[in-house]
């Protein structure tokens, strides 16, 4: 049994979709992504940053979405959600997850949390504008990487495709983000991932209202 500290509109939704794909039993522990709201002590003991996802299992605990994705795939190889360590696609698998985590997500942070990157409120609009430009740059990199592939890694579905879908749900026109329509290959894959039962379950509220 896994335990997942979980909040809507966060990367914990992607981890939940992965757990659904694996078919592993899990319990959701509801928390918040709003920094001015209290978090469970157990969550803060594992991740003092106060962020989610945080995953617990009988042998330990960890945080960081990309790391959790790799961990779950390696722990459940029967799910075939990732290339194994000696597969030729393993390098691209790791590279793309880290790029999502370090580059695309960082661009989103600039637009959602500009105060983390500047010293004064007057500079926040500049940080947000740089984040918007960076989102466009990073999504173009992924769109070009996909090319004519059926999935991000080629002809095999993986957690990378779930991660891609998760990130597309963070795009908000109200924040000036680029439209997913600008990245036709990304959109093509996200549209197919959306049809998976795991994603339909986890993202039910977002499906009903993408701007929620």
Describe the SSE topology:
Elements: E1 2-6, H1 12-22, E2 26-30, H2 41-46, E3 54-57, E4 60-63, H3 65-75, H4 90-112, H5 124-146, H6 159-168, H7 184-193, H8 197-202, H9 204-208
Parallel strand pairs: 1-2
Antiparallel strand pairs: 1-3, 3-4
Would you kindly provide a written description of the structure presented here, covering whatever features stand out?
The mean pLDDT is 94. The chain starts with a strand and ends with a helix. Strands 2-1-3-4 form a 4-stranded mixed beta sheet, covered by helices on one side. With 212 residues, it is of the alpha+beta class. The protein has helices spanning 12-22, 41-46, 65-75, 90-112, 124-146, 159-168, 184-193, 197-202, 204-208; strands at residues 2-6, 26-30, 54-57, 60-63. It folds into 2 domains: 2-79, Glutaredoxin (3-Layer(aba) Sandwich), CATH 3.40.30.10; 90-196, Glutathione S-transferase Yfyf (Class Pi), Chain A, domain 2 (Up-down Bundle), CATH 1.20.1050.
